[in-house]
Please model this.
Amino acid sequence: MREEQDPDLFEPQSTAGVVRAMSSATFRFRCTGCGQCCRGPGSVYFTADDLAAIYEHLDLSAAERRSLRQRLIQGKENGYYYHRTGGACHFLDSEERCRIYEVRPLQCRSFPFWPSSFADQESYTEMRAECPGVDANEPETFSALGVARRVNETQRSFLAPQKVQRRRFMI
Model:
């Protein structure tokens, strides 16, 4: 998959670009709830508002909030906190289910409609191989235009908190 700082990812995705990446005019996807997208090395980006929603959702005391904040936040980058992991997300439970699903950050809510997933054939093929929801049983079918719109909405929403233009990054 493309690097998060690849400047090409800041350009809006076109329908033609989606078709080139997928080699198809349609995308079939239904989340299987497998937790695969919540595993492996990578960075999870979230805002202060996301963190507040997580605290409230988990009904954490002040001490529990401090403890979670210390474990979760490894740094801040241009409007986002981040957590880098080599394993599973901190919020996966023992059954591979997300404990914060209702308030999960944009990065989690928008998968697989990330600019990096549809940037080119290689990125699309890699995402497709990692996600059993692509072409799953009874999938929802998205047109290339629908995919481009969702990717572009993810991009707009993800870039919005980033105030320093020269340090922008993308999922």
